[in-house]
C-alpha cells in the first residue's frame, strides 16, 4: 500500500524550486511520485511507508532550505 | 545552515545594500582600496543564497537563472568590475524579494478563500452543554450549534432552528438564503441571523469547501499549452544563453560584453508572465463562483464559439413552479389556501409546487383537512374545511363528472403550448381554478446568453430529454438557434460529437448525471455545481458554484481577458530582451542597468497579471 503526504511549505517564489523539490523527493528511495504545487506552495508525494516515512520526506525538503509548515498524511 | 541563509535573505539584501553605499562613498572620496573591499564583501554575501540555489538546481540538472547570474558575477569579480558585481547581486535579490511579495498578491484570491476556512466549532455535548472545539476535531454525527455571525464548521443537515445563511464561500452568491430543519448546510458559510443546530455529515477534507479549495489550488498549478511551451522553451533557452555568451566571448575576447549578455538574456519575465495571468484569472473566477480547472481550460474556453445546453436544471431551475393561478370564480386567496392544503397530502412533484406556492400567500395551518387520497396519473381528491375538493388533469375531472367549458379548455391548451402543465381544480363539484405549472427559465438565462453572444458565441444549441412542446417554448423565449428534444444521454453525446466535427469549439453545460457523458465529450465541460455534487465537480472543466448562468458569462469573458493578458506579458518579456540586446550591442547598457531593466520587466508582468484579480466583465 502506498501512502500520501501533503506538505505545506513557506510561500514559494522561484519557479526553479519546482524541479528542485520534486527532483529531490523523487530521488528519495520509496517515493513513487512527487508533485509540487507552486502557487499553493504545497508538495505532494506518494510513497511506500515501509521504505520511507513522511517525517523523512519533510527532512528532504528542509535540507534543500525550505520551511515545512504543516504535514498532512492521508 | 542552508535554511538559515534562505530565511535571512531580506537581511542579506539590506546588508549588501549598506555595503554598496559605503563602498561607493569610500571610492568617491578616493579610498579606492577600502571601497572595493566593501563592494566585494557585498557581492560575496549577496552571492550566498544565489549560489546555493544555483548549485541545488544544477544537481537536479536544471539550468536556473541563478546559475546565469552566478557565472556573470564571478566573471565580473574576475575582471575587477566590483561596482557591477555588487549591483547585480543586490538587484537580483531585491528583485526576487519584490517578486515574491507581488506574486503573493496574485495568489491573494485563493489565500482569501483558505483564510475563510472555519477554525472552531460549538459542539453540543450529550448533556446539552456546549463546548468550543477545533473545527478539525468534529466527527460525523456530532451536533453543532451555530450562532449569529458564526461560521458553519462542517457540511451537514440542519436539525433544529431557523436562520439566514450567507453561502458566498461555496456559491459566490452573497444574498443570504433561509435554512431550517432538514436543509443542507455547508462548511465555510456564515450564519447571518437566527440560530441553527446541525448534525455533521462531512468533516475535514471531505467538506465541499475543502474540495473547492483543493480544486482551485490544483487548477492554478495545472499548466496551459502556452505555459508548457514556455517551460520547454526555457529549458533550452537558459543553457542556450550560456553557450551563446561563450561564443560572444570567443569572438570578441571581451569578457565584460559576454557576462553582460549573460545577465540580460535571463528568461525571467518570460517564465513568470504566463502563470501569473492564469493564477490571477483562476483566482478571480473562484471568487465569482466559477471554478475554472486550470490554464488549459482557460485557453480552450477563450476559443469557444458554440454553446450547448441541457434544458432541465441548466437553462431552467429544474424544479416545477406555479407560473399562473387562474381563478374562474370566487376569492383567489381562499381558493389558493384550500387547494394548497389538499395538495399537502400529495406526493407528486406538481402537488408540491402548488403547496409551496400556497404557503407563500396563506397560512396553511389555519385550514383543516378531513381526508385526502391521491389517484395515480390523475390527481388528488379530498375534503378541506368541509369543502370537497378535486385537483388534477382532464381525466381526473372527467372521472368526477366535472365539465370543462370550451373557453377554459382553450385557455388550458394555450398554457400548455407555452410549456406549462395545466392542473384543474374543482370545489364542491364546480370548476373554479386552472393552475399552470412549469419548470421556470432561470432569471438570468436570457441576459447571460445575450452577453455571451456579444462575447463571440456564434451558435447556441439546446439538447433535452424533455418533450418537444416544452423544449420549443424554452428555446423560443431564449432565442436558441438549434433545438433537439426527447433525447437519451447517448443522443446528447452524438450531437456534441457532430457539432465538433463541424469544426466548432464546443462548451457543454449540464447538471445531472445524465449529462456527464456529453459534458465529458465536449471541448469544455461545464457543470452546475450547486450543493457541490461530487460527480459534476469532478468531471467538468468549469463548475458554476451558484448555478447562475451569468457566472458562465463571467467565466467566458474572463477566459478571453486572461488569454489577452498572457499574450501581453509574453510580448512585454520579449520586447524587453530584444531592447536590452540591442542596447548591449550598441553599447550603453552595462551589467547593472541590464539587471535593473530585467527585474523591472518581471515586476511589470506581475502587475499586469494582477489587473485580472479585479476583472469585471
UniProtKB/TrEMBL annotation, chain A:
Keyword annotations from UniProtKB, A to Z: Metal-binding
Keyword set includes Metal-binding: yes
PROSITE patterns: HMA_2
A GO term for molecular function: metal ion binding
Organism domain of life: Bacteria
Pfam families from the UniProt entry: HMA
Domain HMA intervals: 3-69
Protein name (Swiss-Prot/TrEMBL): Heavy-metal-associated domain-containing protein
Organism of origin: Jeotgalicoccus aerolatus
Automatic annotation (TrEMBL), chain B:
TM annotation in the entry: 12-31, 37-55, 62-80, 86-103, 233-251, 257-283, 570-589, 595-613
Cleavable signal peptide: none
EC number: 7.2.2.21
Domain of life: Bacteria
Family classification: Belongs to the cation transport ATPase (P-type) (TC 3.A.3) family. Type IB subfamily.
Protein keywords: ATP-binding, Cadmium, Cell membrane, Ion transport, Membrane, Metal-binding, Nucleotide-binding, Phosphoprotein, Translocase, Transmembrane, Transmembrane helix, Transport
Main location, first listed in the record: membrane
PANTHER family: CADMIUM/ZINC-TRANSPORTING ATPASE HMA2-RELATED, CADMIUM_ZINC-TRANSPORTING ATPASE HMA4-RELATED
Location of this chain's protein in the cell: Cell membrane; Membrane
InterPro entries to which the protein is assigned, alphabetical: ATPase_P-typ_cyto_dom_N, ATPase_P-typ_P_site, ATPase_P-typ_TM_dom_sf, ATPase_P-typ_transduc_dom_A_sf, ATPase_P-type_domA, Cation_Transport_ATPase_IB, HAD-like_sf, HAD_sf
Source species of the chain: Jeotgalicoccus aerolatus
Domain P-type ATPase A stretches: 116-217
Reactions mediated catalytically: Cd(2+)(in) + ATP + H2O = Cd(2+)(out) + ADP + phosphate + H(+)
Name of the featured protein: Cd(2+)-exporting ATPase
PROSITE patterns, alphabetized: ATPASE_E1_E2
Annotated membrane topology: Multi-pass membrane protein
Pfam families named in the record: E1-E2_ATPase, Hydrolase
Annotated Gene3D superfamilies: Calcium-transporting ATPase, cytoplasmic domain N, Calcium-transporting ATPase, cytoplasmic transduction domain A, HAD superfamily/HAD-like
Amino acid at each position: 500500500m502506498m501512502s500520501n503526504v501533503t506538505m505545506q511549505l513557506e510561500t514559494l517564489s522561484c519557479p526553479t524550486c519546482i524541479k528542485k523539490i520534486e527532483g529531490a523527493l523523487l530521488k528519495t528511495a520509496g517515493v513513487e511520485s512527487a508533485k509540487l504545487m507552486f502557487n499553493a506552495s504545497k508538495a505532494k508525494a506518494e510513497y511506500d511507508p515501509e521504505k520511507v516515512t513522511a517525517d523523512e520526506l519533510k527532512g528532504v525538503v528542509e535540507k534543500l532550505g525550505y520551511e515545512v509548515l504543516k504535514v498532512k498524511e492521508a | 545552515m542552508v535554511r538559515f541563509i534562505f530565511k535571512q535573505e531580506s537581511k542579506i539584501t539590506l546588508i549588501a545594500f549598506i555595503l554598496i553605499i559605503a563602498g561607493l562613498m569610500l571610492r568617491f572620496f578616493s579610498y579606492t582600496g577600502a571601497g572595493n573591499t566593501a563592494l566585494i564583501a557585498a557581492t560575496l554575501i549577496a552571492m550566498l543564497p544565489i549560489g546555493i540555489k544555483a548549485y541545488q538546481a544544477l544537481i537536479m540538472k536544471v539550468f536556473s537563472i541563478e546559475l546565469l547570474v552566478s557565472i556573470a558575477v564571478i566573471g565580473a569579480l574576475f575582471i575587477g568590475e566590483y561596482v557591477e558585481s555588487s549591483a547585480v547581486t543586490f538587484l537580483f535579490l531585491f528583485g526576487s524579494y519584490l517578486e515574491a511579495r507581488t506574486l503573493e498578491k496574485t495568489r491573494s484570491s485563493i489565500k482569501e478563500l483558505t483564510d475563510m476556512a472555519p477554525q472552531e466549532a460549538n459542539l453540543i455535548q450529550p448533556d446539552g452543554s456546549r463546548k468550543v472545539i477545533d473545527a478539525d476535531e468534529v466527527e460525523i454525527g456530532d451536533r453543532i450549534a451555530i450562532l449569529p455571525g458564526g461560521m458553519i464548521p462542517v457540511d451537514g443537515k440542519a436539525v433544529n432552528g431557523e436562520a439566514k445563511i450567507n453561502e458566498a464561500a461555496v456559491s459566490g452568491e452573497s444574498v443570504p438564503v433561509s435554512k431550517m430543519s432538514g436543509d443542507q448546510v455547508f462548511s465555510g458559510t456564515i450564519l447571518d441571523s437566527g440560530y441553527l443546530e446541525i448534525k455533521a455529515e462531512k468533516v475535514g477534507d471531505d467538506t465541499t469547501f475543502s474540495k473547492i479549495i483543493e480544486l482551485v489550488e490544483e487548477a492554478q498549478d495545472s499548466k496551459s499549452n502556452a505555459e508548457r511551451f514556455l517551460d520547454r522553451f526555457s529549458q533550452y533557452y537558459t543553457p542556450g544563453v550560456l553557450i551563446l555568451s561563450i561564443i560572444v566571448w570567443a569572438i570578441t575576447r571581451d569578457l565584460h560584453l559576454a557576462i553582460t549578455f549573460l545577465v540580460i538574456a535571463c528568461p525571467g519575465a518570460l517564465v513568470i508572465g504566463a502563470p501569473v495571468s492564469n493564477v490571477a484569472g483562476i483566482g478571480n473566477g473562484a471568487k465569482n463562483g466559477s471554478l475554472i480547472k486550470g490554464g488549459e481550460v482557460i485557453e480552450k474556453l477563450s476559443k469557444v464559439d458554440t454553446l450547448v445546453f441541457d434544458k432541465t436544471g441548466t437553462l431552467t431551475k429544474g424544479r416545477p413552479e406555479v407560473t399562473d393561478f387562474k381563478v374562474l370564480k370566487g376569492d383567489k386567496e381562499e381558493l389558493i389556501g384550500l387547494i394548497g392544503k389538499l395538495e399537502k397530502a400529495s406526493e407528486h412533484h406538481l402537488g408540491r409546487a402548488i403547496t409551496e406556492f400556497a404557503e407563500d400567500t396563506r397560512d396553511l395551518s389555519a385550514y383543516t383537512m378531513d381526508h385526502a387520497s391521491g389517484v395515480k396519473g390523475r390527481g388528488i381528491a379530498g375534503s378541506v374545511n368541509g369543502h370537497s375538493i378535486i385537483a388534477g388533469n382532464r381525466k381526473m375531472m372527467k372521472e368526477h363528472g366535472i365539465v370543462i367549458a370550451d373557453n377554459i379548455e382553450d385557455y388550458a391548451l394555450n398554457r400548455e403550448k407555452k410549456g406549462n402543465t395545466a392542473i384543474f381544480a374543482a370545489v364542491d363539484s364546480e370548476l373554479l381554478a386552472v393552475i399552470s405549472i412549469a419548470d421556470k427559465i432561470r432569471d438570468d438565462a436570457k441576459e447571460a446568453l445575450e452577453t455571451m453572444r456579444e462575447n463571440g458565441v456564434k451558435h447556441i444549441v439546446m439538447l433535452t430529454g424533455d418533450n418537444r412542446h416544452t423544449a420549443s417554448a424554452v428555446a423560443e423565449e431564449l432565442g436558441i438557434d438549434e433545438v433537439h428534444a426527447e433525447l437519451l444521454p447517448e443522443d446528447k453525446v452524438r450531437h456534441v460529437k457532430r457539432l465538433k466535427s463541424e469544426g466548432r469549439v464546443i462548451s457543454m453545460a449540464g447538471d445531472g448525471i445524465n449529462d456527464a457523458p456529453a459534458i465529458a465529450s465536449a471541448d469544455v465541460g461545464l457543470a452546475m455545481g450547486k450543493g457541490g455534487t461530487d460527480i459534476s465537480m469532478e468531471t467538468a472543466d468549469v463548475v458554476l458554484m451558484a448555478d447562475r448562468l451569468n457566472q458562465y458569462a463571467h467565466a467566458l469573458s474572463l477566459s478571453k481577458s486572461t488569454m489577452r493578458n498572457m499574450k501581453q506579458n509574453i510580448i512585454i518579456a520579449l520586447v524587453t530582451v530584444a531592447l536590452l540586446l540591442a542596447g548591449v550591442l550598441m553599447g550603453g547598457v552595462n551589467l547593472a542597468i541590464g539587471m535593473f531593466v530585467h527585474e523591472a520587466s518581471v515586476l511589470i508582468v506581475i502587475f499586469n497579471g494582477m489587473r485580472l484579480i479585479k476583472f469585471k466583465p
